[in-house]
Amino acid sequence: SQTIHQWPATLVQPVGSPLSLECTVEGTSNPNLYWYRQAAGRGLQLLFYSVGIGQISSEVPQNLSASRPQDRQFILSSKKLLLSDSGFYLCARSDGSSYNEQFFGPGTRLTVL
Amino acid sequence: AQSVTQPDIHITVSEGASLELRCNYSYGATPYLFWYVQSPGQGLQLLLKYFSGDTLVQGIKGFEAEFKRSQSSFNLRKPSVHWSDAAEYFCAVGPSGTYKYIFGTGTRLKVLA
């Protein structure tokens, strides 16, 4: 199974509040995991990726952070949300082989007011 | 630098008409190429992929794509569009040795009845 779960599905948060988005995956061990953000009318922006537990690569410096406490769990966090953090957040996975496609979760719609 | 260009932001076609979505890439090595589709408010679904071999690849939902190395293109085609094909389509390349995938900005397809 390549199932990817994202929680919550939608979220409305005030500016300055904290954030925690969770992604859990099923299937093979040691997947590569990714967080993307999709702003309205724009493409996918890679935020973070992880090739193993505790290994996080950041692509865009900003007020977001990511953690991978378990092999199949990837968490996106923020201490203080900004209006510009609004968007559609997608978690994705790929297997260890370097040429495999990515599988995407259903996404989390975040609105910061 | 590696990049993916989808020159058409919006495309409108009539139901039953043929479709071609353009994708151009810039990549230093032999690319691994993908087309994804995204319905509103949902994650991305893989339509097809190219790694090597036959340059014409078949995908799901009646889509096909042709890899043309000389033109650095990987255009998506469908001979007869259905109303359910209305969605956003993303071309992607990668991953490179850093496990990153590069996505185009997407083409939004509208289908007229």
- Largest sheet properties of chain B: 6 strands, mixed
Query: Can you tell me the residue ranges of chain B where pLDDT is under 50 for at least 5 consecutive residues?
Result: none
Shape category of chain A: globular
Mean pLDDT of chain A: 90
Explain what this protein looks like in three dimensions.
The complex is a heterodimer of chains A (113) and B (113). Chain A is mainly beta and 113 residues long. Chain A has strands at 4-7, 10-13, 19-25, 32-38, 44-52, 55-58, 64-70, 73-78, 87-94, 103-104, 108-112. Chain A starts with a strand and ends with a strand. The radius of gyration of chain B is 14 Å and the shape is globular. In chain B, the strands form three sheets. In chain B, strands 2, 5, 6, 10, 11 and 12 form a six-stranded mixed β-sheet that branches. With 113 residues, chain B is mainly beta. The chains are: A mainly beta (113), B mainly beta (113). At the A-B interface, β5, β9 and β10 of A face β6 of B.
Helices and strands, with pairings:
The complex is a heterodimer of chains A (113) and B (113).
Chain A: E1 4-7, E2 10-13, E3 19-25, E4 32-38, E5 44-52, E6 55-58, E7 64-70, E8 73-78, E9 87-94, E10 103-104, E11 108-112
Parallel strand pairs in A: 2-11
Antiparallel strand pairs in A: 1-3, 3-8, 4-5, 4-9, 5-6, 7-8, 9-10, 9-11
Chain B: E1 3-5, E2 10-14, E3 19-21, E4 24-26, E5 33-38, E6 44-50, E7 56-58, E8 64-68, E9 73-78, E10 87-93, E11 102-103, E12 107-112
Parallel strand pairs in B: 2-12
Antiparallel strand pairs in B: 1-4, 3-9, 5-6, 5-10, 7-8, 8-9, 10-11, 10-12
